[in-house]
Amino acid sequence: MNHDDFNVLNNYVYLDNGATSLKPKIISETISDYYNNYSANAHRGDYDLSLKVDSKYENSRKLVQEFIHAKKTNEIIFTSGATDSLNKIIFGFFKNYLKENDEVLLTKSEHASNILPWFELANELNLKINYIPLDNLEVTLENVKKSITNNTKVISIAHVTNVVGDIRPIKEIIDYAHSKNILVVVDGAQSVAHMKIDVQKLDIDFLVFSGHKMLGPTGVGVLYGKENLLNNMHPIIFGGGMNASFQFDGTRIYNDIPTLFEAGTPNIAGVIGLGEAIKYLNKIGMDNIQKYENELKEYAIDKLKTVKDIIIYNEFTKSGIITFNIKGIFAQDLAIYLNKYNICIRAGNHCAKILQDEIKIKNTCRVSLYFYNTKEDIDYLVKVLSNPNIKEEII
């Protein structure tokens, strides 16, 4: 990895990777190459430019398959992001799978995208939604076991949460859930970019993630599902590209997966750019990224604990997410103060609005690390937070 690949790092300490990652120059170059030199549609033409697009587009699907170790490329569906993927799963599969009084098991630390669609479906089908209790803000297998009832049909949880940053014991949860004939949906938005994921070893039923959190473009994401489940999923968007034929009387034949779920002209440039992002990550190595982030997180915690009046809410979680406040300073005010020193962090409820029931506070500051962050970034953050005149400057 070359820091020169990321122009933003020349002027800012960027510590908001949980919201979106920076993009290396190769991504914009790849996207520009598509728009400038072979900007044809995908799966529509019989001429060289269009066939080149087909090849690049499907090569990205192959790269995603290999990246998450899926069994087949047809288990990879391109979407606009993790939110879109979750909606397609919830309203395309579970709307036809669940019945009245069936139970969906979530946690209060889930992102809005993994809660609001379930609320909508629960209202429509009269489902029950329950929450796995958190133990020191983390999910344990024991609490999962305690939460499951005879009506539990699906568990939908993040692999790594975007506020607390706890890494859930996904393999153990899935193994136990499957022993009870319960399906598991995994929100991988905060994990796929930071650690090696093997959907076959983990036995994941559905996995979703976004390209923009893993060096890729915005507006592109992935829906992974086991082939047998995808074959029982219904499209919720209909149009060109997903049908083989249709007649005036309503007779229609739809394509097989994955194009069944990719109606309309897709985000071709985004998909090709995502493929390039995966190549970039593969060169560094996901194990190397996770190891480095763990070391940087430990360093950051040790340094931050020296800051006067700091409260760290997730000191012992293993991801690169650190959630904190400083006594007497409102979270957004602190973020605005740091911005004066060109330090970018996130402040607020981080789209996990019901987590306040557990953490007992509505707004927090969040530092989220990635492989291009350094100890020097942390030292500078701590120096600015340790300013003895910090409260006066904010006022």
N-to-C series of helices and strands: EHHEHEHEHEHEHEEHEEHHEEHEEHEHH
- The level 1 CATH classification of the largest domain is Alpha Beta
Content of β-strand: 15-25%
Q: Provide the structure class.
A: alpha/beta
Taking pLDDT < 50 over at least 5 consecutive residues as the criterion, the unreliable ranges are: none
Helices, by number, come to 14
Total number of distinct structural domains? 2
Q: Helicity level, as a percent range?
A: 25-40%
Give the CA-based shape: globular
Query: Could you name the CATH homologous superfamily of the largest domain?
Result: Type I PLP-dependent aspartate aminotransferase-like (Major domain)
Number of strand elements: 15
Order of strands in the sheet with most strands: 2-8-7-6-5-3-4
> Gap between N and C termini, in Å?
40 Å
- The CATH architecture of the largest domain can be given as 3-Layer(aba) Sandwich
The largest β sheet comes out as: 7 strands, mixed
Radius of gyration: 22 Å
Mean pLDDT across the residues is: 94
CATH topology of the largest domain: Aspartate Aminotransferase, domain 2
